[in-house]
UniProtKB/TrEMBL annotation:
The keyword Transmembrane helix does not apply. This is DNA-binding response regulator. It comes from the Bacteria. It comes from Streptomyces kanamyceticus. Keywords: DNA-binding, Phosphoprotein, Transcription, Transcription regulation.
Length: 217
């Protein structure tokens, strides 16, 4: 696992310090750990991190301070990798963050559902490397608001799409669903066809587009 430079924004002091200690224990550098949106923007611009980990609700209003800070950073550094670590599914934020981040690492994890330290650290690295990591509950809540596109998929295809959103490989999806790799490949091909994704694009890019298409509706 490579060494990253991480800037962290979390208003809960104990959680913030715990995350700093965890990141450093895994060999990553945390040049700044802050508790509000403006401080996040300043720290990210000053330290040029590989990835920013941010909560959504922070002082003073505990509404969308993290969202506004990320918007500002995206305008200044479009390629900045962002991992949201929140207690809630902020649907507007998730739509914006996951729907318009082509080429930039993106993640949205729920604090209460992070159950494995090593998996969490792997997710941080994946986002920093330009990948996407989304908690299945985030996907479920976003897709629940957009029923029309889902009508085009079978129940099994929806399961496959949900596992794709978690960043799983074809083999990992096959193991989770207890089917063959060939069956998974067939389901994914059907999903891409129903979403009218261009076959000329690389397969990995089409997979990301498939997830983003549903998150955006």
């Amino acid at each position: 696992m490579r060494t990253l430079k991480v800037v962290l924004a979390e208003d809960a002091v104990l959680l913030r310090e715990g995350l700093v200690g965890l990141l450093e224990r895994f060999g990553h550098a945390v040049p700044a750990a802050v508790g509000d949106g403006p401080s996040l923007v300043a720290a990210a611009l000053a330290h040029e991190p590989d990835v920013v980990i941010v909560d959504v609700r922070m002082p003073p209003g505990y509404t969308d301070e993290g969202l506004r800070a990320v918007r500002e950073l995206q305008a200044l550094r479009p390629s900045l990798a962002v991992l949201v670590l929140s207690q809630y599914v902020e649907q507007t934020f998730a739509d914006e963050l996951l729907g318009g981040r082509h080429g930039a690492g993106t993640g949205y994890l729920l604090k209460d559902r992070v159950g494995d330290v090593e998996e969490f650290m792997a997710a941080v690295v994946r986002v920093a490397d330009g990948g996407m990591v989304v908690d299945p509950e985030v996907v479920r809540q976003l897709l629940a608001r957009r029923r029309d596109p889902l009508e085009r998929l079978t129940p099994r295809e929806r399961e496959v799409l949900g596992l794709m959103a978690e960043g799983r490989s074809n083999s990992a999806i096959a193991r989770a669903l207890v089917v063959t790799d060939a069956a998974v490949a067939k389901h994914i091909a059907s999903i891409l066809l129903k979403l009218d994704l261009p076959p000329s694009a690389p397969d990995d890019h089409r997979r990301v587009l498939a997830v983003l298409a549903y998150l955006r509706g």
